[in-house]
Amino acid sequence: MSVGTERETWVGQAVLRLEDEALLRGEGRFIDDLDPVPNAYHAAILRSPFAHARIRSIDASAALELPGVVGVLTGAEVAAMSHPFPVGVENAPASYCCASELTRYYGEPVALAVARDRYVAEDAVELISVDWEPLAAVVDAVTAAETDALVSDRSFSYGDVDTAFASADVVVADRFRFPRWSCNPLECYGVVADWTGDSLTAWANFQGPFTLHSVAAAALGLPGSKLRLITPPDSGGSFGTKAAVYTYVVLMALASKKLGVPVRWTEDRLEHLAAAGSATARVTDLAAAFAADGELLALRYDVIEDVGAYVRAPEPATLYRMHGSLSGAYRVRNVAVRNRVVVTNRPPTSLNRGFGGPQMYFALERTMEIAAGRLGIDPAELRRRNLVRDFPHRTPSGGLYDSGDYEACLDDALELARYEERRAEQAAAREEGRLVGIGVACVVEPSISNMGYITLAQTSDERTAQLPKSGNAEGATIAINPIGGVTVRISTTPQGQGHRTAAAQVAADALGVAPEQIDVLTDVDTSTSAWTVASGNYSSRFSGVGAGAVHKAATKLATKLRAIAAPQLGAEPDEVELRDGKAWANDESVSLRRLAGAAHWNPDSLPRGVEPGLHETAFDAAPNLEPPDADDRVASSAAHGFLADVAVVEVERDTGAVRVLEYVTVHDAGRLLNPLLVEGQVRGGFAHGAGVALFERIVHDDEGNLLTGTFMDYLCPTAPDLPPLTMGHRETPSPFTTLGSKGLGEGTTMSAPVAIANAVADALGVQALEVPLTPGRVWELLR
Amino acid sequence: MTHLELTVNGRRYREEVEPRLLLSDFLRHTLGLTGTHVGCEHGVCGACTVHVDGLATRSCLTLAVQVDGAEVETVEGLTRDGALTALQQAFHEHGALQCGFCTPGMLMAAADLLARGRPTREEIVDMLSGQICRCTGYEPIVRAIEQAAAS
Amino acid sequence: MKPPRFEYARPESLEEAVALLAEGEDAKVLAGGQSLVPALNMRLLRPSLLVDLGRVRGLDRIEARNSSVAVGARVTQRAFAESPLVPPLAAEALPHVGHYVTRNRGTVGGSIAHADAAAELSLCLVVLGGSVVTNRRTIPAEEFFVGHFTTALEPGELVVETLWPRLDGWRFAFEEFAQRRGDYGLSLVAVALRLEDGVVAESRLGLASVTDRPTLVADAEAVESLELWGNLHASPDYLRNLTRILVARAVARAAA
């Protein structure tokens, strides 16, 4: 691929991925492929078979007798050697990486064995005997909210909600439940920990946010500089969930410290399904007030969030990530919310794709659909009447929607779905007794989280007593070696999104070379990388600040190259153009290689004031994020994409089977860096959203025992299960990001569960339904 | 320990292994062929798929000792001649991989299907029901295999 | 998820295999391993000895015998599906057995001996009136399956082959409802019918997955009185409804 005219850029083109070749050859370097330190021993974890139990005693003597076993670490030792993880709410139970006296969820680590290989380690775990005293478990979040399991209870009100409800023509209120689910990346967690002297080096397929590096360091009682955390070049998916690997970094670190050997642990699928960081389950009571013409006057949320057994950082962030977007895509001025966080005897939750969005939009967009029925207004039309029109738009709760044309996206989606024709076909199908339904969802997709939003879990007074938190800064480094090779290093810990390719495109534009001539290193090393506490791969922040940091670093370097080239070309620096691997001015050129040679080999030749070397680091941050204000308003994210979706389903009356006939999604994510990567993100986000709509949930019984402990019961969608997907795009640049781009990998995970649920509700003519819409559940609704 | 002799990607190996060693672990940890990935170890996800005597096989559901005398091919063997195969190239062109963790299994399962003749789209989709991908939503994978089948 | 320790033997003859099996009461037979190895990985089974049938001669044949097809215990599900001798009912069911890749190694004998209540091949064998031949005797399929994962096999007894009656002139249909392709079916129905002058003269109707073993029932009415298992994915009421529908579909299709 080449750039045909001067005005074209690599950014925006569907450049094929630079990541692919190695991965296709089986030459990827994932955590379990690495031997970063010789003679690492393998750990296996003894996990609680009870959701709630007292540990009377642990006897590991038989395990220690087993040949090949190096040692055992118990919860009591963990408690003695480490501190509880810092947490953002006050009443939460103390949380360590391993249970000592009390286990609070099925699958919680209670001890681990270290041996020469994983087989022997598992043998050893079986020989550790525990004297258990099972206790009653609390699994239901609503019940838990009435007890001391309620660990945070905050209410917020913006505008005049009571007056708006009093003046409403129509009020719609219902309870919406969203299930616990998990992204289940194909690669599970992995850690190698090597404690030497007074410091730890750990390799883990961690994905950020690097706030959790500080959390892990605090638990270990280490200054951050003594916890060198390194991520591998490749990671087998995460979608948020590998943020939670940090608790295992701490656990393996303690094992390495106690036993004096490097310790490696590779999580298996049963462990992952039992105990990895899943999404929160949420119960939302939502009331919405409307005028007769469909104007949305007010929203009142009452939310109970089940974060599992402990409030593990960054929780309760799932609850606050959407805080600036409680009004969704609508102009409504009056919004109230009560947020209650409860702990239950289920595993602690963590980041998962959509992070709070699927839960919130399930309530909001079901409500819009229900209200449309009550108001006698077409559901798409009801939304259109309320969509935000003018930008930037400040939401009642403080969100700042940057740009977009929401109505145009909705129009596109309706056109692509042939909405009017579909409605006619639906009417005809109903005449034949067929159950066809159409569902709509409109979703504002926040990206590039404000690190400060989580402090909303505290009161304004509590916040003022602390260092204010805000922002979302990301770093990148770029260097040119003595013979002209370009290397970019990023700190966005990709797990499949194609950051390497996109970063190369961005740098290529600045330096005037082709993307394939740029090596992009994706492994983060907290001792050498350019990172901030906000670094990592979450809240869809790469295309905003990740690519922005690369752009800024590459621009700095390009500026320097122009300065070096200018005297050689007899021109001023700003007359020098970088293209085709050369610096050009006055129809003459000098190669990048030669310029690099000058900077490295012959600093004497550099123009006055130009430093030797070609190595630049830059940081990028969106300019529009401040800490929450005294009235609890927060711009919880820097950029806001928009999507409008239409789902068409048919339900088989006999069996309750739901078939999604078509799914249309139209996005406006600002400037698109690479349409091929964009398509991948939308398809993948949809797969997760459709998975929750139709198949995926983590189920515990009333005693807290896990019922979805294998991939035979936790149902990930497979190829025959996903419907045809039609995508559309608009590109309204964001004024708040360096390249005008916004995140888009999570939107369809937010929209698809509710769009499909709306379609099924429409098909069945019912109001109350829960996802996943399994055939058995749908059939019960049909009875 | 049990004696094991086999060919992997055309190279002969003689090893002493514990009977309980899974083929997936044998390939990854004994031979260092880490291209074969382990996703679930109960046969559902398909990431560990390799070929045993020409047939796609779950290496996590196979004991290493069971393949004594067999010819095993892993993803590393696909490019023994250097260049990417048409199937791999099609995966590249269609965006059929993101994190790449399921990809080796996808390739080996698809190669088996392609070896049986030109599959229909339905046959491709049906085969893929045994291979989990959490990144791509499958459609690009289906298209890539269709393209490889046509070439 | 690594198997516990066990001894391993790879006999070359049936006699040798039988002798090995008799040695330890916790010995298990390993054929394709597609059900056994996951159970080992989860440490749900702890055999003292695995007797691998992989090299036992004579277990990989498919042949016509009298009015039946004899299928060696180690014949893979793929080889069975691709055989010109595959009974039509089994041919319909085989694409539902596991997945494409697991059928490459999963065996017919292994599936039968494993006796999962949701197994397609077990149901087909029962509906066809087939039988299981062991090193000691021939057991009618209806008597072979005793419960979920439980068979009439005695210690030291192993499946040598299965006999699949051809039922020439009969018509067949197999129906399965699963949440995803290749999942354990929530309900399975197989039917064999013989028509005379367009009227059903004989029929054999069987269900699986909803009961603890493949079960023959007299007619569609019988579904109403069966005691059904519920599970995470489906209530007993739903399963009854599903089974009712699959029976109707299978019978209609076979008779058409």
Fold and architecture overview:
The complex is a heterotrimer of chains A (783), B (151) and C (256). Chain A is of the alpha+beta class and 783 residues long. Chain A folds into three domains: 20-28 and 473-620, Aldehyde Oxidoreductase, domain 4; 34-136 and 183-275, Aldehyde oxidase/xanthine dehydrogenase, a/b hammerhead (Aldehyde Oxidoreductase, domain 3); 281-453 and 626-782, Aldehyde oxidase/xanthine dehydrogenase, molybdopterin binding domain (Aldehyde Oxidoreductase, domain 4), CATH 3.30.365.10. Chain A contains 21 helices and 28 strands. In chain A, the strands form seven sheets. Chain A has a seven-stranded mixed beta sheet. Chain A has a five-stranded mixed beta sheet with strand order 7-15-14-13-8. In chain A, strands 18-26-27-28 form a four-stranded mixed beta sheet, with helices on both faces. Chain A is globular. Chain B has 151 residues and is α+β, with helices and mostly antiparallel strands. Chain B is built from six helices and five strands; from the N terminus they run E-E-H-E-E-E-H-H-H-H-H. Chain B has a five-stranded mixed beta sheet. Chain B is globular and about 45 Å long. The model of chain B has no long low-confidence stretch (mean pLDDT 98). Chain C has helices spanning 14-23, 36-41, 77-82, 88-93, 102-105, 108-114, 120-127, 141-144, 236-255, and strands spanning 7-9, 27-30, 49-52, 62-65, 68-72, 131-134, 138-140, 145-147, 150-151, 159-165, 171-177, 187-196, 199-208, 215-217. In chain C, the strands form four sheets. Chain C has a five-stranded antiparallel beta sheet with strand order 4-5-10-6-7. A four-stranded antiparallel beta sheet of chain C has the order 11-12-13-14. Chain C has a three-stranded parallel beta sheet with strand order 1-3-2, covered by helices on one side. At the A-B interface, helix 1 and helix 19 of A face helix 1, helix 2, helix 3, helix 4 and helix 5 of B.
- Placed side by side, the strands forming the largest sheet of chain C appear as 4-5-10-6-7
The percent range for helix content of chain A is: 25-40%
Q: Approximately how much beta-strand content do the residues of chain A carry?
A: 15-25%
Spatial order of the strands in the main sheet of chain A? 3-5-1-12-9-10-11
Mean residue pLDDT of chain C:
96
CATH architecture of the largest domain in chain C: 2-Layer Sandwich
Total E-strand runs of chain C: 14
